[in-house]
Amino acid sequence: MLLFMAIPIFHLLKTKWKEAGSAPTIPAGYTNDASLLNLTKVDSVIQVPNNREDIIEQLKEILIYAKTNNLKVAVAGAQHSMGGHSISPNGIIINMLPYKQLQLDTANNILTIGAGTLWEDALKYLDGFNKSIAIMQAFSSFSIGGSLSVNGHGWQKNLPPLSASVMSFTLLTAEGTIRNCSRTENHELFKLVIGGYGLFGIILDLKLKVVNNTALAYKYLKMNTEKYLDNYDQYISDNENVALVFGRLRISNKKFLEKATLSFFEQTILEPPPLSNPNSVELKRIVFRGSVNSEYGKRLRWDLETGANKVSKNMIFSRNELLNDHVDIIENKDAQSTDILHEYFIPKRNFYRFIDDMKSLLIKSTIDLLNITIRRVEADQDAYMNYAKETVYGFVILFNQKKTELQEKAMQQLTNQLVDATIKNEGTFYLPYRLHISKEKLRTVYPQSDSFFALKRKYDPMEIFSNQFYEHYK
Questions:
Q1: Which of 25, 89, 126, 134 has its CA 20 to 30 A from that of 245?
Q2: How does pLDDT run across 81-97, given as a tens digit for each residue?
Q3: Which residue in 366, 389, 370 sits closest to 378, CA to CA?
């Protein structure tokens, strides 16, 4: 028994010992993003003040300065995109994170919020009113403006992306004017800015729908992957009490992608507990990091997580507590590698065929696979660059990539193979990630790309707002 316990303990301690420290600091005059592969020299990084009038005055001056000196402007928040979407080489980077204004209209359940606010700040604020975010991404450490710019989706049951919860937003345009954008006012800009990666102006304030904070009971299913959709229909879609849900695929070589889990949370009549400070996530983080380049670690993580899921069944959580999950829980502290996300959206009719196609590619790849989460996303009626044209299942795939030229080439090859499989299965790929896809493949999946870029030049003829994504694909 002692030996049985000693092996996983030793493995986790070894994982901790092997970590080569946190990511290197960014030198002055440079910026980077979550990929840690986009260190780029810039003209300046400017922090905005936490006051709307001061921000507007400052930003107008920056736009004049940029035009006068022929500089580009990129808008940044928490910078969790991975393809230079918040970076313009030798340009001005505007950091919106300091702008954290919050005001709740309790009569209409509308939250007015500054674009630099993190989701965790919004959750803490709303908890005092017993309210919660309607739609948000899986991690609360992203900024609201950044989430709108990528049109993120969440793990709220059977809902469209974030755009569906946005009532309106104010935008500072390239000409220095402020426009209110909604479904009835400046509607074309509304559609373009949502998922528009900061190319049409600077988002200032947003009005978002909020919902009640509720007490949720945890439920869990383990199954063969071939039963996933049947179980999803039975336990999730046909169950009106489910509020939050995500699935996972087993990624160890043993039974690779053959096993799946469904974790979901049902509403109860209990009062939700107040939001407390999060518990230490270090043990969970080490378990996760212990799966890097380790078949034993991947099996251990699956066994520990599925075992913990059984123990946690029927435990009660508040909605806000569940949504307030920080990216630190998977943080990579190995300076020699980085974690890279992909996401592919597949219609239900091709769900299993895509898994089979993906399986053959992942088995052959030299890139280390860390996680596959599945989330259902309903059709999006708002974003111009729409990745959810119908109900789709999002496969959120996390890899660990060494910071070497060989691994970069391997990742580029794998990405293109996965995109080819996605196209074959009538799906789409998410745009906030590395720029490994050709212009032709982008236009195959997003045939509206050329008109999107033409409209960008209509609203910003001097192309003041720019980033690496735009320069690569325009």
A1: 126
A2: 999 999 999 999 999 99
A3: 389
Which tokens in the block code for residue 318? Answer: 């508040």
Give the residue from 92, 97, 94, 93 showing the smallest Cα distance to 50: 97
Strand residue runs (E) in 56-177? 73-76, 92-95, 102-105, 110-114, 131-133, 166-172
Find the mean pLDDT for residues 353-376: 98
Which residues on neighbouring strands pair with residue 102, listed in sequence order?
113
Cβ atoms of 376 and 158 within 8 Å: the answer is: yes
Q: How far, in Å, are 162, 200, 207, 336, 458 from residue 469 at the CA level?
A: 21, 13, 27, 25, 18
Q: What is the pLDDT of residues 7-63, one digit of tens each?
A: 787 788 787 878 865 567 889 999 999 999 999 999 999 999 999 999 999 999 999
Q: CA-CA distance, 460 to 395, in Å (whole number)?
A: 34
Q: What are phi and psi of 373, to 5 degrees?
A: -110, 145
Strands of 242-249's sheet, edge to edge? 316-318, 215-224, 259-267, 242-249, 368-377, 392-402, 337-347, 428-429
DSSP state of 164: G
Q: Report yes or no: 473 and 442 within 8 Å, Cβ to Cβ.
A: yes
Range 257-274 average pLDDT = 96
Centre a 10 Å sphere on the Cβ of residue 306 and count the other Cβ atoms it contains: 15
Cβ-proximal residues to 335 (8 Å cutoff; 6+ apart), any chain: 20, 21, 22, 23, 24
d(CA 272, CA 321): 9
Query: Which domains does the chain carry?
Result: 102-212 (3.30.465.10), 215-433 (3.40.462.10)
Residue labelled with tokens 């943080």:
331
d(CA 303, CA 285) in angstroms, rounded, equals 15
Residues whose CB is less than 8 angstroms from the CB of residue 139 and which lie 6 or more positions away in sequence, other chains included: 80, 119, 325, 326, 327
Neighbours of 7 (CB within 10 A): 11
CA distances from 133 to 100, 189, 207, 452 (A): 16, 24, 12, 29
CA atoms within 13 A on the CB side of 135: 24
How far is residue 73's CA from residue 85's CA, in Å, rounded to a whole number? 11
